[in-house]
Structures
1.
Amino acid sequence: MNTPQLSSLATQVRRDIVRMVHAVQSGHPGGSLGCTDLLVQLYFDTMTVDPSAFDMDGANEDLFFLSNGHISPVWYSVLARRGYFPVSELSTFRKLNSRLQGHPATEEGLPGIRVASGSLGQGLSVALGAAQSKTLRGDNCWVYSLHGDGELQEGQIWEAAMYAAHHRIDNILSFVDCNGQQIDGSTDDVMSLGDLAAKWSAFGWRVLSCDGHSFEALQEVISEAHGHRGSGIPTVVLMKTDMGKGVDFMEGTHKWHGIAPSDQQLQDALNQLESTLEDY
C-alpha cells in the first residue's frame, strides 16, 4: 500500500476502535488509537504474512506479539481488515462467547493470535523465544513486538532485555509506545522512566526513535533496523505517540486509557474520523 492508502485505512481502524468500545461500554480506546498507525504499517506494508493459512507455528512468515494486550481493539480491527477473520466479527467484541475477548487469548482459536497477552511485562520474553526459534530453524523472517511505556515498569522486561543482548538475538524489532500515559496518570507521576534510550542502550540494545504517527518515519526506522540484521544486537524503537490520536477530546490524557465514549462522544469521534471505507 502507498502512504495515502495506509492513512485511509488507519482512519477506518480508528472508527472501528471507538465503535467497538462504545458498543459494550468497555475497553481501552486511548492506547489503541495511539498505536493504530504502527499496526497498519506492519500488517499492510512491512510484514510477510498469509492470513489464509494461519497456524500457531508461524514458520516462514513474520510474527507480531502484542505485549500490552489491553489495546486489543486496534489489533482485532487490523487483523480483521487484513483478512484473518470476517470484519463483521468485530461486532462481537467483549461479548459473551466471543473470540474477541478484552485481552487477546488463544482458547477461542482466533486467527492471528498466538499467545494470550495482557499480563504486562511478559510479551518481550515470548517474542524473544519465537525469534530464537526462527534462528535455530533457519527461518529468516522477523519477529516484532509492541510494549507500552508504562509496561517498562515491569521487571521482567529488563530480564528479557538482558537475555536478548547476551544471546545476540538480532531478528527482533521491538517498539515501545512512548505516549507518557498509563492508567493512573502520566508515567512521570506514577513512576518516572528516566532516560529510556540510555537504559536500553546500557542493556545492550540498539536504540532508534521515530514519530509513531508518520508512515514515512515508521518505514524509515523499520528499514534502518532491518539493515542491522547480522550485527548480533537487538533493536528497540522508542515510538512517540499521542494517546487517543485522531479524536481531539481523547488525545494526550490518561483519562481515556480504559473508558468508553458516550453516544454523543461516539458521534463526535466519528465526525472527526471521516472514511470512505465501510464500517463493520
2.
Amino acid sequence: LCLELQSGEYQLKEIFDYLYSLRNQGSSFGIERMELLLGKLRSDLLSFPVIHVAGTNGKGSTCAMLDAIYQANGYSVGLFSSPHLVDLGERVRINGKILSDEKVFRHIKQLRSIAEEIEQENPGMHPSFFEMITAVAFCEFAEEKVDVAVLETGLGGRLDSTNVVAPEVSVITTISLDHCHILGNTIEKIAREKAGIIKEGVPVVTGWLAESANHLVQEIALEKKAPFFTLAKESAKENLPITNLKGEHQQRNAALAVKVTQILQQKFPVKEINVKQGLNQVKLDGRWQIIQDEPLIILDACHNEEGARVLGKQLEELPNEKELVVWFGSLGEDRAKEILSEIVKFADEIRFFKPDQPRACSLDTLRTLISPNFKGKVKNGERSETKSYLKEIKSGQILLITGSIYLLGEIIEIVKNRKKILGSSFQDIL
C-alpha cells in the first residue's frame, strides 16, 4: 500500500511538472491550437451553456457573482477563472468546489497524449499551459453536466483559448490600458480585442466602459447582429445592488451580473430573492479579503492603474489611528509605479518582495519607484521569511498584502505550508 501511495504521488508530481513546464515556455496567442485540441476530443464536449466574460478589471468578480447567483437559484454551475492563488484546481470549480489534484491528474493524463499527438502531426502546435487548463475545465463541465458554465477569459478575448465557445451571452466588464504590448496601446485597440468574444446574434452586455470603447463595442455588436446592452451610461449609486464584496466597484460588478441574469431570464429563470442571496454569499479569494481581524490582515490583488485607483478608495476607509504596513510585489515596472503612487499616500511602512515569476520587478527597481517625499520605512523582504515578518505585526497595525496575485499565493503557500485552508485565521503563526 505504501509503495502504491508513493507511486501515485510520483505520477501526480510528474504530470504537474509536465504542466508547469508548458507554463515556463510562455504564452502564444491564437485559438488554432485550442481548435486542434478540441477536434480530437468528444464532439459534444461544448454542449453546456456558457456565459463568456472578458474585461480589463472586474471580470473575476463578475464571474464569481454569476456563479453565486445561479447556485443560489438551484443551478449546477461550472466556473473557470484565473489565475489561482495556491492550488491549480481553484481555476475549475463545480458549485463552488475546486477541482481536486486527482481530477486534474486524470484530465491532464488524457489530454497530454492528445497534445503530444498534435505536436507530432503539427510541429510547434503543442497546446500551451492555459489551453490545457481550459480543456480540463471543458472536460470537467461536460462530465458533470453543468446547467451553465461561467468562463473568464485569460487575456484579451479574440485570441483567448476560451473563445471557441458559442455562448448564451458575452460580457465585457471594463476596458483600460493593460497588457498593451499584446493587446494594443490605445483603449480602442484593446476594446477591439475584448470585443472579439462577441458572436453572431448573441447578446452582449458591457459595464462602465469609456464612451469611445463602448461605441466601438456597440458597432461590432451591430455588425454581428448581436443585441447590445450597456450599463456605461448609468451612474446612480443608490440603484446599485448590495453584495458582500467591499467597494462601489464591486456593486457595479454586481449590477452587471444582475443585468446578465435579466438577459437570460427566459432560458435560466432566477428569483430576485435568490439573486440577492447569491450576491451576499460571493466567495472571491484575494480581493480585499480580510483573513484576520486583530491585527487586521487584508489580501488584495492589484495589478494595474485602474485597480490602483480602486485600492486608493479602499485605503481611504481604513482607520487613520492605526499604522498601515504594506507588503508589495509586482510583475512589470510600469504597473508597480502606478500602484505605488497610491500606496505611498497611506502607508507607514512598505516591505518589497519579488514574486517567483520571470517578469517580477527586482527589489532594487521597486525601491527606485518610491517618491523621495515618502516619510515611512522601506524594507526588503524574502518570501522564505514570511512567518517571522508576520510575528512583527502589532495589534495597532494593519497589514495589507497587495500587488501581484502570484505574490499573494506564494505567501499563503509559505504561511500555511501548502495547506488548503485559505480564508482561515493566521493566528497559529502570529
